[in-house]
Amino acid sequence: MHLFPYQPRKHQTEIIQLISEVLSNHRHLVLESGTGSGKTVCALTAALEYALNYDKKIVYITRTNSQQQQVLLELRAIREHAEESLKPRLFGVGIQGRANMCLQARYNTELSQGTAEELSKFCAAEKKKVHTSRKGCKYYRNVIEDEEKVEETYRWVREKLPYVEDFIEYCDRKDLCPYEINKELIRDAILVVVPYIYVFNPIIRNMLLDWLSRDEDDLILVVDEAHNLPDYLRDLFSSQLSYWMLKACIEEVKTYGDPKVSISQISVSKFCKTLSEIIRDLRDTYVYSILEDGIRNRNDKQDAFLPSHEFETEILSRLSITSKQLDQIIEDLLVFGEKIQEYKQQQGKLPRSYVHHLGEFLEFWMNLESEQYAKLVVDASNGRNPRIEAYCLDPSIGASVIKKFHATIHMSGTLQPLEEYRDSMGLPGDTILSSFPSPFPKENRRILYVTDATTKYDEIIKDRDIAGRIENYISSVCNTFPRNTMVFFPSFNILSMFQSKDFFKKIRRSVYVEEQKMSQSALMDLVSDFKSHGAKDGATMFSVMGGRISEGMDFPASQLEIALIVGIPYPKPTARQRGLQHYYEMKFRKGWEYTVEAPTARKLVQSIGRLIRDENDRGIAVILDWRAKRFKKYLEDLRESKDLIKDIQKFIEN
Ligand code: SF4
């Protein structure tokens, strides 16, 4: 405990001891500990002590930049508190993706959209120019030529342990590349704080290992907000081909030539047009249903399973080619795409080729036989951009690298059931699963539910009064209690059903509404305005569960005192969801529990978790749905309310 910088709170000593044991025994730990319980500083303390004693390094992975800041903030506190001789060794560096750290990308809209791979190629070409001519990236040139400035930057970083954003600003002022400077600094760091991609993309991981001069078994991996990781990995290992992407290919060949592919003598544009037609037809066949009068119904679902070889069979028959010729076409697309990339690179542009993406997708799709993937046809944008998708059902595909690390700690405030996380990630059976209760007084939080409301689709359609009752609950709570109140809906779709001027007029307070496409900065402004009402008249904010507010923002003290949860955020019964449930049923015999109940409970717990951030916070949550009682095991203090206003009044007065 001697590195721990604060007076330990309830459970913190136990958490540190547990992590220390896990590290000593080279094991894996799945740890749930309530939001605000200080798990970041506990994990850091235990991992740093171990790393110092056994010459290891720590890779701490986070999902958002604010989580990254929190880790660096705790490292500063630990260093401040540590004995003088240890201070130089308690050095850590935060890294973000190249799109954020490359100063050229910062000031160039095209480059700022680049993927890690594209920017890496762009950067390599720029650096080559610097070494062979007077051209190339000026930020890199300064790094290799201006030793004094570089040394001064190293000293500044070592002294300040800056947040990544501040570090980038500093380098920008000095015209130095932050990415290149970081590469050097990392060699001396005992801790690196990076986004998930630095561990789960094999190319980027190898680069990181190279900078650290260590193999995985010399590293401790800490996963922050681990409940996000399975979905993150599913997305990372899924692949899709959309109508818009094919349009981009056609535009690309207009500029860079439209060669004939393979012995089939089909032009790239003709090939892409055929693929677009096939995708549209597959969407019409499988996603849209035919109504009695023969008209296609576009509204009842947004995706469907695609029979295993249907897409490729359609390509062969419509173009009258053999599968061997199709293989040749794919190879030609890759070669042509590479030429476009090289050409763009020489021009100092982002080396992006849509034709190359197409070749990669088709290569992946044709070789996909695994039951760990579902082949889908999707229409999620009202018919504008249909796509086919190879959806990764099994995140353990990408998580196998975890087992190579010396030890791993997976933490979150909401991970129940812990077995689900262990199984989804393919962690070994002897992984330690541990859950610590919230350290804050139980009486500071109340969770109620009512039995005469629901967002269950067939009930809300059958009984038109339900929506009115929900509106009444919301308006009467908001009008009775001048406290900051957040109203969470299961989705933006359901929120929009309630989003009418007449309803909002009933709420006699300032009303704020989160919009799905809002930029991060617009959302931050909106939230900060809402927060400012907390200490005054109290406002109402409409938001969604599983979104940017409910999963990532803090509302201490009067910034949020009442949370109204409208409905239960069950996943939509899409083909993708059904595929996932079936896969988990086959693999673990727990399809419903792992893919429906657990993610729904996490969204509820995360939303309610906004209420209490420290020991002095008090707050009340109300779930406006009778199905809340199904989640009693995740919300132990859940109680039915027969008189909502009276119950809230009582809690506030107490
Ligand atoms: S050296 Fe740095 S600033 Fe220059 S292109 Fe590479 S990453 Fe970007």
How are the SSEs ordered, and which strands pair?
Blueprint: H1 12-24, E1 28-33, H2 39-54, E2 57-62, H3 65-81, E3 92-94, H4 98-101, H5 103-106, H6 109-112, H7 116-132, H8 138-145, H9 147-160, H10 164-174, H11 178-186, E4 191-195, H12 197-200, H13 202-212, E5 219-223, H14 229-236, E6 239-242, H15 243-256, E7 260-261, E8 266-267, H16 268-287, E9 289-290, E10 296-297, E11 303-305, H17 310-319, H18 323-346, H19 354-366, E12 373-378, E13 387-392, H20 396-399, E14 407-412, H21 418-424, E15 432-436, E16 445-449, H22 457-462, H23 465-480, E17 485-489, H24 492-498, H25 501-506, E18 511-513, H26 520-532, E19 540-544, H27 548-552, E20 562-565, H28 575-588, H29 591-609, E21 619-623, E22 638-640, H30 644-653
Parallel strand pairs: 1-14, 1-15, 2-4, 2-5, 3-4, 5-14, 16-21, 16-22, 17-19, 17-20, 18-19, 20-21
Antiparallel strand pairs: 6-13, 7-8, 9-10, 11-12, 12-13
Helix pairs in contact: 1-2, 2-3, 15-16, 16-17, 18-19, 28-29
Residues 98, 102-104, 123, 126-127, 137, 139-140, 177, 179-180 line the site of iron/sulfur cluster.
